[in-house]
């Protein structure tokens, strides 16, 4: 990181000519020289991706501009510097080829001294070829290129980074690498000097280390003879009692490097900042400056609105990092490409750890896989080596095929370039779980200053929202021998063979688990997001936002909904925070972007969503966490809440925890004081008992960590006591088809259900609580009975209900099922306020945590009937246009003279003692009876 140098520069930003070359004729017809087709050229801004002016253009383009140099530059070495171009670049100056570069995100430079016309204008032509979703460009396919997430969002092309000319003296500082050594209280300096003359020259090297206060810490001076070319020198400068760089105290030093050549009386001066710190990982646990650190990370998709690669306004990067810091996170994972220019300067200064990644990501195998890997790994590490905030290098992400080919080789290559940081060969390689995918493989890690790979349990979890109790319990125990992975498989995630293998791996693994991705998204204020694109509506990201905004408005108006849908991310983090075998987590993700427009805790413009504020509470120095046995109970029953305290730092010793329980009227019905555990770490405290009265209502529990009158932490929970109801008031016998579901295996239903009489099914009120258990003949009789005037309530359909789905389709009812839990993109279920939700507190709107155990595993494409409850999501497949999708959870349709009630809520699979399932089932049957 060079913060300053003494060289003169000329900024080439401004208006350039640009001609696209769809037929790839430019090189052969001389566009690089005097035959540049000025009559076809358009004027564009540089730096700027060309997609701002031409949103859907990809392929090849030829830029042209001109420049003149001041007379005092003559005799110096002239270099042309690019901060970033996507994707391939070839450059000509005055018709002479000066070099080429491949890669979308890192800087490069060319020497152009021999091409310069000193007394006249110089012509500069830059050929750029971008990547394309539809075809190879210059022989390179998007899927086989190190393209970060251009395949997920949209490819972009052009000169996006600053371009300038630089005048260098004969002897220059070619590169500076700074390696802190806390044990020896010194900084190691690897200095490369370049001599562009044909003769050896003497140089005076002066190295000065300053602290932030501008006080000199140390100084060295030496004379060397520099031969032509590049020479390398090593220095070790003592820094007595160094201030250690940390998240709490991001102390920075500055190295001033001056190279003076007596024979030419010229100097080359650079200043580079650095920090004294060490970071490593041992047995899954992270250590900063020798002390254990629990990683509270957030994943940044480093794409920005309008300008894509860099922020559209200078304050956006600072704002997103500040919000991360204020929310208590200590690490940012910059996902699948190098950070935008200037980003790491801010993380250095603000005290945020950084997990840096190459742009290899999900690249597919090709003859050039190793070539791409070596180039991108080296470019990333060489650019960002000096930043103290950078602590982890990532090679691949969720890419077992490529990682198995050369992941370890590239990790060892990274180790050869940098011995001081942790290297991860494939993030999420150990286990990755979503509703529609899952695998178990290996993740290998190289700890700092070690060359032998170590196995790490690095896992990615996308478990939807809201998490059911079994899902929460799995998260709470993952990585321990008490964990039972079949719990998660039973919730519809992964597969049993995957979890069996994971459990076997954990039997011999002695380290901690690192959850390097966990997430589930939530919608934002689409009107506010769209307003940010005023004047830029033609851009592709603006079109996506506007389309989603319009889809939301149309859907809400059609269904009469007015709620704003949010995220349940807080529940996942609570489960992980209270698991002592987890060494840290990285939340997916910080920001909305492109196709993942509702996945962030900040919107596209880096404005906080509700989930941001919930997570901010969890990441404070002291955090109280509640774990209720149940969120709903019946009158006269009881439940409990487990209370835990997580201290990032020790308490002073004079604190107490005050627990208050209030009824719905706000009257305090119980209060108690608890002594906390004062030491740092996770501590399970008392179990809070809740005794419900005979009337319904809500019990509000508040736990506060107090130091005198100051509140250090707070946790609240609401337990719903649902009103009593009686099935006998329905006064209607119901015909049961198939086996008795768990909900009905209770004495209260004795005599309520009557066996199906296939010989006389006309006019029956029927229930099929377990649709997969019926034969085709039984389905035929049920549908004929409905056609003649009967009513049937169907339990939840799933992909294994093949006979049921086929029978319904033969009857003209097309069933399309979709995963109902969401992933990193949310699936948000809504319930109306009315007969269906009678007896539920705050009925209407988002189906929140109260319904977590019964939320649909699968939602249906709307059937054209009356949607009594449904869900909202956006397109889940990248190959489809981004749009809002409304799906059905509970729907009533007419069939012949009768009616069918589809219920995808998992009511009947629950025990009768489950108050929410029982009450919702009662309300649904009452609706069905009244509809006859």
Provide an overview of this structure:
The chain is 17% helix and 36% strand. The protein is of the alpha+beta class. The chain has five domains: 2-168, Galactose-binding domain-like (Jelly Rolls, Sandwich); 171-274, Immunoglobulins (Immunoglobulin-like), CATH 2.60.40; 279-525 and 564-618, Glycosidases (TIM Barrel); 635-721, Immunoglobulin-like (Sandwich), CATH 2.60.40.2550; 727-930, 3-Layer(aba) Sandwich (Rossmann fold). α1 runs parallel beside α2 (343-350), α3 packs across α4 and α10 (569-577) runs parallel beside α11 (610-618). Mean pLDDT is 90; it is low at 564-568.
* CATH domain fold name of the largest domain: TIM Barrel
- Quickly give the CATH architecture of the largest domain: Alpha-Beta Barrel
Number of structural units classed as domains: 5
Distance between the termini: 74 Å
Shape descriptor: globular
């Amino acid at each position: 990181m060079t913060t300053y140098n003494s060289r003169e520069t000329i900024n080439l930003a401004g208006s350039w000519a640009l001609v696209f070359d769809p037929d790839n004729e430019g090189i052969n017809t001389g566009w690089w020289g005097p035959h540049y087709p000025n009559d076809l050229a358009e004027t564009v801004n540089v730096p700027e991706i060309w997609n701002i002016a031409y949103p859907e253009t990809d392929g090849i383009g030829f830029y042209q501009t001109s420049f003149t140099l001041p007379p005092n530059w003559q005799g110096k070495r002239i270099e042309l510097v690019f901060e970033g171009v996507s994707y391939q670049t070839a450059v000509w100056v005055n018709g002479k080829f000066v070099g080429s570069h491949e890669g979308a995100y890192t800087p490069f430079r060319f020497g152009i001294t021999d091409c310069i016309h000193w007394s006249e204008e110089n012509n500069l032509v830059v050929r750029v070829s971008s990547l394309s979703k539809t075809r190879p460009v210059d022989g390179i396919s998007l899927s086989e290129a190190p393209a970060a997430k251009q395949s997920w969002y949209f490819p972009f092309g052009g000169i996006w980074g600053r371009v300038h000319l630089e005048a260098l003296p004969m002897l220059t500082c070619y590169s500076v690498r700074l390696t802190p050594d806390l044990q020896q209280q010194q900084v190691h300096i690897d200095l490369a000097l370049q001599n562009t003359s044909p003769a050896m020259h003497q140089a005076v090297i002066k190295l000065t280390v300053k602290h932030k206060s501008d006080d000199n810490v140390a100084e060295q001076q030496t004379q060397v003879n520099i031969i032509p070319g590049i020479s390398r020198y090593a220095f070790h400068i003592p820094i007595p009692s160094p201030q250690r760089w940390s998240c709490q105290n991001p102390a920075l030093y500055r190295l001033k490097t001056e190279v003076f050549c007596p024979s030419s009386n010229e100097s080359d001066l650079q200043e580079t900042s650095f920090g004294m710190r060490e970071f490593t990982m041992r047995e899954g646990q992270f250590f900063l400056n020798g002390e254990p650190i629990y990683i509270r990370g957030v994943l940044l998709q480093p794409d920005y609105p309008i300008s894509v690669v860099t922020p559209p306004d200078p304050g956006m990067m600072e704002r997103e990092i500040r919000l991360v810091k204020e929310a208590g996170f200590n690490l940012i994972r910059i996902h699948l490409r190098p950070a935008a220019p200037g980003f790491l300067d801010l993380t250095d200064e603000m005290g945020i750890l950084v997990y840096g990644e190459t742009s290899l990501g999900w690249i597919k195998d090709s003859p050039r896989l190793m070539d791409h890997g070596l180039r991108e790994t080296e470019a990333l590490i060489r650019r960002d080596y000096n930043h103290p905030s950078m602590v982890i290098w990532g090679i691949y992400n969720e890419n077992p095929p490529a990682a198995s080919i050369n992941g370890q080789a590239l990790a060892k290559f990274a180790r050869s370039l940098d011995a001081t940081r942790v290297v991860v060969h494939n993030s999420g390689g150990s286990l990755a779980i979503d509703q529609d995918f899952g695998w178990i493989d290996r993740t290998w890690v190289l700890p700092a200053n070690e060359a032998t790979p170590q196995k790490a349990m690095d896992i990615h979890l996308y478990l939807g929202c809201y998490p059911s109790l079994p899902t929460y319990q799995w998260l709470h125990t993952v990585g321990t021998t008490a964990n039972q992975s079949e719990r998660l498989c039973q919730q519809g995630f992964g597969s049993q063979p995957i979890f069996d293998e994971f459990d076997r791996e954990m039997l011999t693994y002695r380290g901690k688990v690192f959850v390097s991705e966990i997430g589930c998204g939530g919608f934002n204020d689409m009107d506010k997001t769209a307003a940010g694109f005023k004047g830029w509506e033609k851009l592709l990201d603006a079109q996506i936002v506007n389309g989603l905004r319009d889809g939301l408005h149309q859907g809400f108006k059609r269904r009469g909904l007015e709620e704003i849908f949010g995220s349940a991310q807080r529940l996942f983090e609570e489960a992980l925070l209270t698991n002592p075998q987890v060494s840290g987590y990285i939340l997916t993700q910080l920001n909305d972007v492109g196709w993942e427009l509702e996945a962030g805790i900040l919107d596209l413009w880096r404005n906080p969503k509700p989930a941001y504020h919930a997570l901010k509470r969890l990441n404070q120095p002291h955090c109280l966490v509640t774990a209720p046995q149940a969120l709903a109970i019946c009158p006269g029953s009881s439940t409990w809440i487990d209370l835990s305290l997580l201290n990032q730092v020790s308490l002073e010793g004079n604190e107490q925890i005050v627990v208050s329980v209030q009824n719905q009227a706000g009257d305090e019905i119980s209060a108690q004081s608890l002594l906390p555990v004062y030491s740092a770490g996770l501590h399970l405290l008392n179990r809070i008992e809740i005794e419900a009265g005979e009337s319904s209502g809500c019990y509000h529990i508040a736990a506060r960590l107090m130091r005198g009158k100051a509140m250090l932490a707070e946790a609240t929970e609401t337990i719903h006591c649902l009103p009593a109801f009686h099935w006998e008031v329905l006064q209607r016998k119901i015909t049961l088809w198939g086996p008795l579901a768990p909900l009905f295996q209770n004495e209260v239903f004795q005599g309520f259900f009557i066996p199906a009489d296939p010989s006389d099914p006309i006019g029956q009120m029927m229930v099929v609580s377990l649709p997969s258990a019926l034969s085709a003949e039984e389905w035929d009789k049920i549908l004929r009975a409905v056609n003649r005037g009967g009513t049937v309530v169907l339990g939840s359909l799933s992909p294994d209900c093949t006979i049921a789905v086929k029978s319904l389709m033969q009857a003209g009812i097309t069933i399309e099922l979709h995963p109902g839990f969401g992933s990193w993109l949310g699936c948000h279920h809504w319930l109306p306020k009315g007969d269906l939700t009678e007896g539920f507190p705050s009925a209407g709107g988002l189906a929140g945590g109260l319904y977590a155990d019964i939320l649909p595993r699968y939602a249906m494409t709307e059937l054209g009937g009356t949607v009594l409850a449904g869900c909202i999501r956006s397109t889940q497949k990248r190959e489809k246009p981004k749009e809002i999708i409304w799906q059905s959870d509970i729907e009533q349709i007419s069939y012949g003279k009768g009616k069918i009630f589809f219920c995808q809520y998992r009511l009947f699979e629950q025990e009768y003692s489950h108050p929410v399932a029982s009450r919702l089932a009662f309300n649904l049957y009452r609706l069905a009876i009244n509809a006859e």
